[in-house]
What we know:
The complex is a heterodimer of chains A (293) and B (161). Chain A has 293 residues and is α+β, with helices and mostly antiparallel strands. Chain A is 33% helix and 23% strand. Chain A folds into 3 domains: 7-52, Uridine Diphospho-n-acetylenolpyruvylglucosamine Reductase, domain 2 (2-Layer Sandwich); 61-172, Uridine Diphospho-n-acetylenolpyruvylglucosamine Reductase, domain 3 (2-Layer Sandwich); 179-284, CO dehydrogenase flavoprotein, C-terminal domain (Enolase-like, domain 1), CATH 3.30.390.50. Chain A has helices at residues 14-23, 36-41, 77-82, 84-89, 91-97, 103-106, 111-117, 123-131, 148-151, 227-233, 240-248, 263-284; strands at 7-9, 27-30, 49-52, 62-65, 68-72, 134-139, 142-147, 165-172, 179-185, 195-203, 209-217, 224-225. Chain B has helices at residues 25-32, 88-95, 105-118, 124-130, 142-157, and strands spanning 3-10, 13-20, 51-54, 57-60, 73-75. In chain B, strand 1 (3-10) and strand 2 form a beta hairpin.
Amino acid sequence: MxxxxxxxxxxxxxxxxxxxxxxxxxxxxxxxxxxxxxMMNFRYVMVDHLVDLGGVEDLRxxxxxxxxxxxxxxxxxxxxxxxxxxxxxxxxxxxxxxHVGHRQTRNRGTIGGSLAHADPAAELPAVCxxxxxxxxxxxxxxxxxxxxRKFTAGFMATVLKPDEMxxxxxxxxxxxxxxxxxxxxxxxxxxxxxxxAAALLDVGAGNIVRQAxxxxxxVATSPIRVEAAEARLIGQPLDAALIxxxxxxxxxxxxxxxxxxxxxxxxxxxxxLSMRALTDAARRAGVDVPVVM
Amino acid sequence: xxxxxTRVTVNGKAHARIVESRLTLADFLRHELxxxxxxxxxxxxxCGACTVLxxxxxxxxxxxxxxxxxxxxxxxxxxxxxxxxxxxxQQAFIDNHGLQCGFCTPGMLITLTELLRDTPxxxxxxxxxxxxxxxxxxTGYAGIVAAALDAAQRLRNGSGG
Lengths: 293, 161
């Protein structure tokens, strides 16, 4: 047996899970296990208690209310990928999920687990950054809502307290007819991306950009919004030249360097992938811009 | 609570065991039940050799604890066809040189069984995308892709083997 010994807990209710997390020392949450269990198999992670949220019904479900798509934290990535509601209201999520791991890992992996794990190259945190998602954190003290930009806290870190769990994610629904795009570069389909770009564009009369969001993953310690790009887009008539100018703003990012890619290469990817993601978003918003390669 | 009573139905047969929490489903299948058809390559979720169906969905059995499968139905490569017989997909693997050393084959078969169940008419691209989660170091994948497309055709024709 590879992992170190631990006690296993399988709560059925949210309250029961919160009580366990408040009471048990050195406990960790088991969501889909697709990142945690490898780390346990390597004994990078050794816990005394594992609290499996797989049986907590309160943490599942998809609902639309008050202009938000609410997703339960324990929703499996595969179920979100196949959800008609997600495809209709937040199609960027569906698009990005095609790049998340493989079907075998999406069958188990959850959205809450991906956000809590906070891998800088992961797709779903970048999507949450693009949407300005609100993350609901539950504990015995109740539930607190944290905007995504305050949820991340550096490399593979979040503001989650040891006794807190993600309960749900709220994604603001953009106007019907908006466009979305997601592109990433990975060495093998399903691998973690060297860099990725998520884009949302809402376009009004005369192709004027009403609302724009561009988020990158893989280039910094956590997903980042390219506000300079958004500022160049909003209020301007959308065409290929504007997209090129906005994507060039991704040059401003200060990328990480590691064994997989140098910073300069990531900066190049950030611009190219931003251009592709924005182009897809523009075309889906009904603006006839040429496809870029 | 480091040991848990666990009930799992594997290939249609119910099993009840008291297992250590840290026992992976893969080790449970191989060591507790003697179902050694499920192979373990990397044991950290990359190679896909250990893929099984849990409640009908492909799962890496090295990334799941046996206790998490409590109450579930598991299908392993041994459960794809009755003893002494081959499924249409298994026969297609033989006919199309879909295996050489055979180490990755159980995971390949399980992954493609799910694909053909959900997508009876897959394109080559869909087959290749399904296989991204399974590594093969012998075949170069061409024979595996051909086997999957051949099996899909045979299943649609209802010609069995």
